[in-house]
Amino acid sequence: MRTTVGIIGAGPAGLLLARLLHNAGIDSVVLESRDRSYVEHRQRAGILEQGTADVLRAAGAGERMDREGLRHDGIELRFARQRHRVDFPGRTGGRSVMVYAQTEVCKDLIALQLKEGGPLLFGAEALAVEDAESERPRVRFRHEGREEVLECDHVVGCDGFWGVARTAFPASLSRVFERTYPYAWLGVLADVAPSHDELVYARHDRGFALLSMRSPSVSRLYLQVPADTDAEDWTDEAIWDELERRFETDDDWRLERGPITQKSVTPMRSYVHEPMRHGRLFLAGDAAHIVPPTGAKGLNLAVGDVVTFARALVHERETGSPELLDAYSATCLRRVWQAERFSYDMTSMLHPGPGDSPFDARLQLARLGRIASSRAAETDLAEAYTGFPWE
Does the annotation mark 107 as catalytic? Predict the structure, then answer.
């Protein structure tokens, strides 16, 4: 099998890249180890930056997002029983975010790919990327019980942290930067209308809490818990009781309860692999970087990576110059490190650590108070949350 771009992974990054290349007249093949149902139902991120939403629209994948997604013009910070709203459009010149689950993005892109795009092979397990430094890199994969080879001009690894793409980088070339946090998020889906019309980020002495949503009738909520927590150790009543404590305010706001349909624990981690390119092999998304979910950056960083690659490949085709492809890693990493910085700032500001002192707690409250009282500090948060520009 032969193609111009071999894409490993049919998450939102791989699927969007295939769509961008198709629209530019560049052929690709997407290899996905899981089946279609798994890809369309795995719960992941749900906040799309302004730029991500704009790219989906331009790619022809925004119709259902605009019909069913929830545009949000701000978030609420909650601390010391007080509430402060951050106005995104007012601080960024009109930018906002869209609440639209990654599962729905994948459904939209899969439907387009199967209708109009190149091959999308489910149940195709990538085994290795070979000859990345040559002009004809190959992906060995297993599909329907047979081992096959995909020859490419370029390979893009959108196969996540545990995928094979990054393992093709020589150890002498790879540099890893990471931080593991001593807490995790206990996340639940609940069949109840959200108790607020925008996301609520709450800092409490008992731990962080987040009120989010998947739709007007489904709430997504999170609690900071110890890193070794088993979700099944928490009863539904205990979860709602703890959420009420952490969201408490001095006004008459109330948290609505409902049936919890799903529980899971998300570890908190920061990770960057440098570089993001080796020969004709390019990394995108979680294959190259992971952020704690506090800043809502994971999916959006992956989109930024594939947009950067697609633009660079089109530039080479139109001009004959590999300049932008050669700069891929440096270009992406500038944005990645800004997102890592923002995600770390949000995480450290809102999560009391297990060894924190009263001094640490006062610093967190001072940082939140600065955002609530300073237009410049609030603008910095709004600009970062709605999305760093793509170069």
Answer: no
Answer yes or no: are the C-beta atoms of 120 and 10 closer than 8 Å.
Answer: yes
d(CA 270, CA 340): 7
How many other C-beta atoms are found inside a 10 Å radius of the C-beta of residue 163? 19
* 385 is an active site residue: yes
Q: Three-state DSSP class for 340? A: helix
pLDDT value for 391:
64
Residue 141 near residue 29 (C-beta atoms within 8 A): no
The DSSP element (H or E) to which 44 belongs, if any, is none
> Which of 196, 278, 297, 351 is the catalytic position?
297
Which listed residue (100, 181, 183, 201) is catalytic? 201
- Clarify whether 344 is annotated catalytic: no
Distances (CA, A) of 163 to 8, 134, 160: 9, 21, 5
- H-run or E-run covering 281: strand 281-283
- As given in the structure block, the two tokens for residue 115 are 């209708």
User: What angle is formed at CA 33 by the lines to CA 299 and CA 2, rounded to 5 degrees?
Assistant: 100
295 in Cβ contact with 335 (< 8 Å): no
Residues in CB range of 93: below 8 A, 6 or more apart = none
3-state secondary structure of 93: coil
Q: What is the pLDDT of residues 131-170, one digit of tens each?
A: 999 999 999 999 999 999 999 999 999 999 999 999 999 9
One of 289, 293, 328, 351 is an active-site residue; which one? 293
- Residue among 22, 72, 196, 289 flagged as catalytic: 72
72 a catalytic residue: yes
Query: pLDDT tens, 179-208?
Result: 999 999 999 999 999 999 999 999 999 999
115 is catalytic: no
